[in-house]
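Before relying on records like the one below, remember that each one covers exactly one chain. Contacts with other chains, cofactors or solvent are not represented anywhere in the record.
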Amino acid sequence: MKYLDEYRDADAARALVRAISSRVTRPWSIMEVCGGQTHAIVRFALDEILPEQIHLIHGPGCPVCVTPIETIDRAIALAARPEVIFCSFGDMLRVPGSGKDLFTVKSEGGDVRIVYSPIDAVSLARKHPDRQVVFFAIGFETTAPANAMAAVQAARLGLKNFSMLVAHVLVPPAIRAVLDAPDCRVQGFLAAGHVCTVMGAGEYRPIAEQCRVPIVITGFEPLDILRGVLLCVEQLESGRHEVENAYRRVVCSEGNLTAQRQLAEVFEVTARKWRGIGEIPASGWRLNEAFAQFDAERRFDLGHITAEEPDMCRAGDVLQGRIRPCQCPAFGAQCSPERPLGAPMVSAEGACAAYYRYRRKPARDDRGGA
């Protein structure tokens, strides 16, 4: 398949590994930010074919995984209301709250629907003026423009029965939070290409300069990731700390300016809780005052709903790269895709799901992480 097979070419992969081996002279720890990259690394065993000096650490790069349990509980409370049609992407329906998940609410009679776009939820609000339609707006910067567009369209249509439960999180503050952790061992980052497609590279430059870490923007196929590792290693070995773009077929330096204008029109920056990590300042978006009428938390007064993470689930340590999924005592036993304790076992981009599917045993360098 064009634009896919050529980025999985085994000979090209071996050549990149040889190039990395020829340049590395000491141990380096590199964190991939995105869960899609984590799945590629585990599926294709990229960490196993790299030189022993290269230690890849899995980061918190899955928006489903980092949505805090109290937000899930708020979604569950909304979905159980008889006047509400609750709309979400499919992964979120199986993420456990403190007592149940959205699939359970649906089985109990709640009107919970899987949609493929926030515009689908806007359409449902037009078709059902007697119902309150709530869209679960999660994601990194990648999915936010479509959600902003839905709010703009709802405003233009004058819809009074459409709202969004917003849980958007931002990648650059999460990178800073990882670097600020007292036990951090991350020396370089592979940044998520799809996020940079929207936001560009500018937000990463102050982090690279101030924290003296190389940040390489990469894609999601094996050759993308290996080339990102190569560029990161070259910077580390030469003592440089810059932002490099190894995903030029998709990412340009300034990003998508039209999408950025739409985001600025609808959202404002806010502190956000991350599942298993806690609150990170200025790490999320919420609807600004001009679009506050579409904020489900305000409309339904959900601020009183709080919850704590289950003690048995070590999702926070996995998301911060402190442990590998298979190092969690519950992995594959009390926690599986059929009966997940935490979101990383549910999400299509979750690290725990990747290890459960592709690697049940510890890899050669499963020594912990950040």
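The domain at 1-370 is CATH 3.40.50.11740 (Rossmann fold).
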